[in-house]
Amino acid sequence: MKLKVCGMKYEDNIQAVAKLQPDFLGFIFYEKSVRQFTTTIPKLPNTIKKVGVFVDEKIEIVLDTIKKFNLQVVQLHGHESPEYCAAINHVNVIKVFSIKDEFNFNVLQPYEEVCDFFLFDTKGKLPGGNGFSFNWDVLKNYPSTKPYFLSGGIGLEDIEKIKEFKKYPASKYCYAIDINSKFEREPGLKNIEELEKFRYELQH
User: Considering the chain, what percentage of its residues have pLDDT values greater than 70?
Assistant: First the structure.
């Protein structure tokens, strides 16, 4: 499974996390987020894909931001329509869906052709970043072959749970683990030692 570290904010911290070679780094372009990114992304290794996270943003702003920050991936956390997703056709698109204890997978169907990945996180008060996990058993009924990111309050304490999850058919299309708030000293500032430990455990 690949690793995405989301909610990056501070240049020195971004560079420190980049040394751990995650596959994706996420930058939140949403003004209501405490992790809103407003500065400059330092030069990163080509192996790390830059992900811009948006919530019901005007399409023109998304396209401008892709160009400005040279993003390779866009993650859509709001109520974006399939038509909206289709308009972003020159980078990878991740469409986010929130789950608690159940989920109607039929809602994925219109997005199958216009997204490269799905992302499942925990339904809560905020569009992402709620800091707790949903019931992964729901994914046993995953009807698609679309690769997905698993998100929602994942921390070091979930390593065994992830290893157990990998044994089940539901994990077949789990492309990446997405982590954020459980690895922070404060919003946007990642704990490098804990990230390093998680990365190692994930690979072994």
Answer: 96
Q: Where are the beta strands (DSSP E) in 17-136?
A: 24-28, 49-54, 73-76, 92-99, 117-122
What are the backbone dihedrals phi and psi of residue 160, each rounded to the nearest 5 degrees, phi first? -65, -40
Task: Return the structure tokens found at 54.
Answer: 């948006």
How confident is the model at residue 204, as a pLDDT?
Answer: 87
The neighbouring-strand residues paired with 40 are none
What's the pLDDT at 46?
95
Please tell me whether residue 25 adopts helix, strand or coil conformation: strand
- Counts for the chain of helices (H) and strands (E), in that order: 5, 10
The amino acid sitting at 64 is D
Q: Concatenated DSSP letters for 116-158?
A: SEEEEEE-SSSSS-------GGGGGG----S-EEE-SS--GGG
All structural domains of the chain: 2-203 (3.20.20.70)
Crossing angle of the two packed helices 11-18 and 192-203, in degrees rounded to 10: 20
Amino acid at 85: C
How far, in Å, CA of 44 to CA of 9, rounded?
Answer: 14
Q: pLDDT (tens digit, 9 = 90+) per residue, 127-184?
A: 555 566 899 999 999 999 999 999 999 999 999 999 999 998 889 999 999 999 999 9
Specify the residue for token string 């560079």: 15
Q: What phi, psi does 130 have (nearest 5°)?
A: -85, -15
Lowest-confidence region among 15-29, 93-107, 125-139, 163-177 = 125-139
